[in-house]
Amino acid sequence: MTGLLLLTITSFIFAMFQGGFLSWFLFYTFLPFALYSFTLIGYSLDKFKVERMISKSQYQAGDHLEARIIISRKSLMPLFYLMVEDEIPDSLLPLAQQKKKIIVFPLLKREIKLNYRFDHLPRGEHFLETIRLQTGDFFGLYQKTSIYTVPQTIIVYPAIIQLPFQQLEKAYDQGNGGSIRKLLHDHTLASGVRDYQPGDQISWINWKATAKKNEMMTKEFDDQKSHDLFLILDEQQTSLFEEMVVFTASFSHAVLKKGIQMGYLGSAFQEPFLPIRGGEHQRQDILYKLARTKASAMERLEVSLENHQSILPLNAALIIVTGKLSRTTMEFIAGYKLNRAVTVFCMKNGSFLTAEEIAVRESAKKKGIRVNYLDQHQYESEIIEVAAQ
């Protein structure tokens, strides 16, 4: 403001003292730009209508997001330029370099539409909050800014890799504990009835109980009760945490799609655990928690489990996904096992086992615990069983 005023006064004084056509020509040429700048000072950017339109609010990791910003105004004040910035949350900062600020030259336009796109969305819950508008004069001496709050939330679920049925059966098989194949095909002895859950097969419906209660009721089987799963994700900091989340999501998706009931717990205990249930609703709940999870556990896995023993059900097989499996952790799990079947998936970088990993796996096998080491680059095509070298 001060600089613009001084520049205007200086050009006028120069024309007065210098005189002549050229000096006055320069002053009158400069005058419209100066008047526009002074007018802009009194022009408000706060009366615009700013909207952000996103085609959907739920994505999967790796998807792209397409958004449109619509800016409407009633006045005909010409704007030389308008810089539009959709302020990106920290969770999306790696993508901010793709398209952070957009400059348009609206002049007399009353409605401005801008499109932008983010590729390869990262997993997480992302909050889009504010849109910043900025304009100024021709000389860059005066600028004004207005910030609009346009809150929107997008959920990016972890990617899901289709795990073959043979993998699930092999991973879940616990010897005397049973197998998935038996669970899926041996529904002959009903032990009771329960409320219908999304994902239950039509053949499981107990029509007599349904007619009596006027609500959908399904049969409950002894083998179904004994084959429930409870999955625990180790949320300690590790470079392979994203791979662990992808495997957990893929495993949960496949198991629930096969009609098996399962619960879920993150070792950081930042959110309530999910009790054992089945169906599509449970699948969505688990994926939502996996979208929000972070490697934020401050305690080792065994310490977290010891502090929350009352949460874990006694009548369900435990599935533990971790990126750090030591002798200490395995000894604790063995002592905590009781009569439960336990399978541990340990994500690692590379397909060869170290001497320590071989020793841990053999020790776990003697205690009735199955350990599967997963190569981050290969588990989607094969659950690795690396022979001792």
TrEMBL record:
Chain segments annotated as transmembrane: 25-45
Any single Pfam family the record assigns to this protein: DUF58
Keywords: Membrane, Transmembrane, Transmembrane helix
Sequence ranges assigned to domain DUF58 in this UniProt record: 193-329
InterPro entries for the chain: DUF58
Protein name, per record: DUF58 domain-containing protein
The organism of origin for this protein: Peribacillus psychrosaccharolyticus
High-level lineage: Bacteria, Bacillati, Bacillota, Bacilli, Bacillales
